[in-house]
Amino acid sequence: MGIRVTDLHCKEVICVSDGRRLGFVSDVEIELPGGCVLAIVVPGPCRFLGVLGRQDDFVIPWRFIKRIGPDIILVDVRPEDCCRPRPRPLWFPI
Asked: Are 29 and 39 in contact (CB under 8 A)?
């Protein structure tokens, strides 16, 4: 049974170890040229009412996905272990 990348988009990701809601899938990392899915990307939570941007993204390797349902994805990973800093916009002052 296969699944399309578009089917993963906008599914909610929940950590099974603590029941924490990580957010919704926004992107997928794919290995080229093989085409294997490496990880799903979930944007980090908003900082101070969304005015100051977002915290680090969660990049969850495919091997930690336990179950993909019709509307959620269950993962077994500590969120702190899969954080990746968000790229800064070009206009952001240093």
From this structure: yes
CB 11 within 8 A of CB 24: yes
Separation of alpha carbons 62 and 29, rounded Å: 9
Dihedral sign (CA 78, 60, 82, 31): positive
- Nearest-CA neighbor of 62 among 40, 92, 31, 85? 40
Is 26 in contact with 16 (CB distance < 8 Å)?
Answer: no
Q: Please say whether the beta carbons of 13 and 31 come within 8 A.
A: no
pTM: 0.74
Low-confidence ranges of the chain (pLDDT < 50): none
